[in-house]
Amino acid sequence: MISLSGKTVVVMGVANHRSIAWGIATSLHKAGAKLIFTYATERLEKNVRDLANTLGSEDILVLPCDVTSDEDIYKCFSTIKEKVGVIHGIAHCIAFANKEDLSGEFVDTSREGFLLSQNISAFSLTAVARAAKEVMVEGGSIVTLTYLGGERVVRNYNVMGVAKASLDASVRYLANDLGKHGIRVNSISAGPIRTLSAKGVGGFNSILNEIEEKAPLRKNVTQEEVGDAALFLFTDLSRGITGENIHVDSGYHILG
Ligand code: 0WD
């Protein structure tokens, strides 16, 4: 039986019940982990609090953390340190790009759109890891979510593909820096899942159809499947793994 009893994990990036972050939270909760949630804007606070309440534990911390703000990140992790003391994991499930940069040609990306997606979708992992390491004093695991569009060209993914490539490289550099503190850093490359963010990617339905037709497992993946792979990365079963990217995509990435 996989257990995370006695471990505390911060889940960042729940927007609603379809969020991959919520799939991860559900798997971690079933394994007995204590959870802390962060949300980006006040608009999402109620959603996240309502979802956290469905887990049936009374003392779940729900904190604001807009990752574009160093002050927010600092305040968030100071509050965690004060109220909880030690944490053992971070699930970083955060990305953003302007809708107009997720269709057409990558060559037309604006400087502003490029920097925005890099800031929220890639740099945020480093900013969060730096703050988190101060409270991960017993070691632990950081898991982020990436996509195949960072490894190869996926139509319309454009600026987000370049942000994911940057995120993927960040995973390797962070793994190298934080390993000496007993902190592992890995990513999961999820297959396409219908979420709020996915709606922004042009032609998303055709990507889902292609997976059903061609992926080795002939089906799309679910939040639960990604959640269970993340659970593995948060447990000691994965204690020898860092700087790695695990594809949870029905095997689609092996196709040429
Ligand atoms: O097909 C998919 N859905 C895939 C998603 C395939 C492979 C990877 N991913 C990745 C995404 O790129 C992202 O990194 O999974 C991660 C989670 O995305 P999701 O579950 O697909 O989407 P969603 O439920 O929309 O959650 C993303 C959240 C934001 O939601 P909204 O919808 O409000 O943009 O990222 C968070 C926010 O909660 N977020 C921020 N968090 C803190 N500060 C910020 C911010 N500035 N901006 C967005």
UniProtKB/TrEMBL annotation:
NCBIfam families: PRK08594.1. It catalyses: a 2,3-saturated acyl-[ACP] + NAD(+) = a (2E)-enoyl-[ACP] + NADH + H(+). Transmembrane segments: none annotated. The active site is at Y147 (proton acceptor), Y157 (proton acceptor). Coiled coil: none annotated. Pathway: Lipid metabolism; fatty acid biosynthesis. NAD(+) binds at G13, S19, I20, D66, V67, I94, K164, I193, R194, T195, L196, S197. Catalyzes the reduction of a carbon-carbon double bond in an enoyl moiety that is covalently linked to an acyl carrier protein (ACP). Involved in the elongation cycle of fatty acid which are used in the lipid metabolism. It is an enzyme of class 1 (oxidoreductase). One of its GO terms (biological process) is fatty acid biosynthetic process. Substrate binds at A97. Belongs to the short-chain dehydrogenases/reductases (SDR) family. FabI subfamily. Keywords: Fatty acid biosynthesis, Fatty acid metabolism, Lipid biosynthesis, Lipid metabolism, NAD, NADP, Oxidoreductase. One of its GO terms (molecular function) is enoyl-[acyl-carrier-protein] reductase (NADH) activity. This is Enoyl-[acyl-carrier-protein] reductase [NADH]. The gene is fabI. Its EC number is 1.3.1.9. Homotetramer.
